[in-house]
């Protein structure tokens, strides 16, 4: 699943990801290159079935690409360092950004405050 998601722009089934319900404090990294992507304090339960964040860790952490696949107009998000597919961003998130970064668990690693790592 991880290769399918990150290298072939795939999507894991909703509500199936290992990190969907993770509530620990820490940092979410790219599964492929380990670049930091999101902080746990920006994660929230959007009800969409995938981990959701309202902002990335930095402006250059994410690359944005127009995606017109499947008859929809969306913005694909990729790792700013290695170009791995992460998911999509939508303009229906909470404040302060109003954005929902909808991310496949299979594209993430999570590192908690003690340095323990969990693969999505």
Automatic annotation (TrEMBL):
Pfam families: SelR. GO terms for biological process: protein repair; response to oxidative stress. InterPro entries: Met_Sox_Rdtase_MsrB, Met_Sox_Rdtase_MsrB_dom, Mss4-like_sf. It catalyses: L-methionyl-[protein] + [thioredoxin]-disulfide + H2O = L-methionyl-(R)-S-oxide-[protein] + [thioredoxin]-dithiol. It comes from the Bacteria. Residues 1-113 form the MsrB domain. Its cofactor is Zn(2+). GO terms for molecular function: metal ion binding; peptide-methionine (R)-S-oxide reductase activity. Its EC number is 1.8.4.12. One of its GO terms (cellular component) is cytoplasm. SUPFAM superfamilies: Mss4-like. Gene3D superfamilies: Peptide methionine sulfoxide reductase. Keywords: Metal-binding, Oxidoreductase, Zinc. The keyword Zinc applies. PANTHER family: METHIONINE SULFOXIDE REDUCTASE (PTHR10173), METHIONINE-R-SULFOXIDE REDUCTASE B1 (PTHR10173:SF52). Belongs to the MsrB Met sulfoxide reductase family. This is Peptide methionine sulfoxide reductase MsrB.
